[in-house]
Amino acid sequence: MGSAGLIRPCEGRTNLNGRPISGASVGARTRGKRGALALLLAALLLAVTACGGGGDSDSGSGSGDGKGKGSATADTKASQAVVTIAPKDGTGDVKTSGALKVTAAKGKLTEVTVEDTKGNPVDGEITDGGATWTPSTHLSSATKYKVHAVAKDSAGREAAEESAFTTLTPKNTFVGIYTPEDGSKVGVGMPFSINFTRGITKPDDVEKAIKIKTEPAVDVEGHWFGNDRLDFRPEQYWKAGTKVTVTLNLDGVEGRPGVYGKQSKTVKFTIGRSQVTTVDAKTHKMVVKRDGKVLKTIPITTGKPGYDTWNGQMVITERLPVTRMNGETVGYGGEYDIKDVPHAQRLTQSGTFIHGNYWGGGAFGNYNASHGCIGVRDVRGGYDRKVPAAWFYDNSIIGDVVIVKNSKDKTVAPDNGLNGWNMSWSEWTA
Predict the structure, then answer these.
(1) Closest CA relative to residue 254, chosen from 137, 92, 117
(2) CATH fold for the domain made of 82-166
(3) Beta strand pairing status for 259-261 and 172-174?
(4) Bridge partner residues of 194 (DSSP)
(5) In a 10 Å sphere around its CB, with 0-12 CB exposed, 13-18 middle and 19+ buried, how is residue 5 labelled?
(6) How far is the C-alpha of 324 from the C-alpha of 339, rounded, in Å?
(7) What tens digit of pLDDT does each residue of 101-124 get?
(8) Which CATH number fits the domain 172-271, given the four candidates 3.40.50.300, 2.160.10.10, 2.30.29.30, 2.60.40.3710?
(9) Which parts of the sequence belong to the L,D-TPase catalytic domain (predicted)?
(10) The whole model's pTM is what?
(11) CA–CA distance, 176 with 292 (Å, rounded to integer)
């Protein structure tokens, strides 16, 4: 049917001049509008067809199944690497040494982090070409740890594993009683000495848990005296002004079967000025040197025949303004009992002191009259600060060195007091 047949002429209708309205004119205007609408619909249809991309063409557009030539395919295969953490997640009562280990099969470890619930990390090392991670130190006791490990296979795909476990709570423990005290200033001969409350049968593990850092840097080595004492010192006396930091990481160390350390502490001390005093038992004098220069020469008396003073290098370990000295405490029976010995400074554990002496008469500088101690002239009560014993006491500190020579006795034992300086460096480090 033609467009003219769709709309008939408006019969009987006229315009303002009384002339009939032509049906042909109305139909022409209507056809014009419909033509424009058809063009618009055609354009819209063309746009939809172009955007749809559903038809085959030479443009290379893909088909509706998403497998066209131009699509990028993602590698969704799982990593072949297998990470294993021991102990397993949720394990309790774990040993503090030897139990923690991370391994990778069919891949290489790239990341391992271990930390306690406070965020303190555990250092370790990836070895065997990425196959193994082990901690470089022991774990603390009664502590929960979290482990996160990542490995990559040959294609670079990652596999990860996590575990959380808790270490054992020991029934038997030990601590180290140490000297010098934290924050102290000591002389150049002062070692860092630790006496353990239980005999140690795993000395290497215990010594490894003690770190010493110095400023300026100097090599410091440890030496065991028996199984319950460990001393640290450098090869030569400390340099004046050296700052020493000791880290005691003993918590969790198995010192002997079933006995664990429970100590975690940092100790800092500073080396003061250098003071070394040399006592000559033959000339009955001692020379006090401060930073290499003679500070004072003082008349003294040492042990009489049969009670000779030890030779060797000794360190002041205790200072007492006044003390009682009784011969019974050192195996000399009732030979003496002096209740008010002034200005006493200990040199050996066996009872050797350098101290004030108010009863020696003319012995000072002339002959040896003591039971093995080094006597310096003093007054009873120690009130006079000008006498030699008071002066020496006031100018000494813990850790100062006193060297005795030309006595008829042998050299003091290295473990009799803090007197390891009487060992050569090769003996000390053996």
Answers:
(1) 137
(2) Immunoglobulin-like (2.60.40)
(3) parallel
(4) 178, 230
(5) exposed
(6) 4
(7) 999 999 999 999 999 999 999 999
(8) 2.60.40.3710
(9) 275-405
(10) 0.79
(11) 35
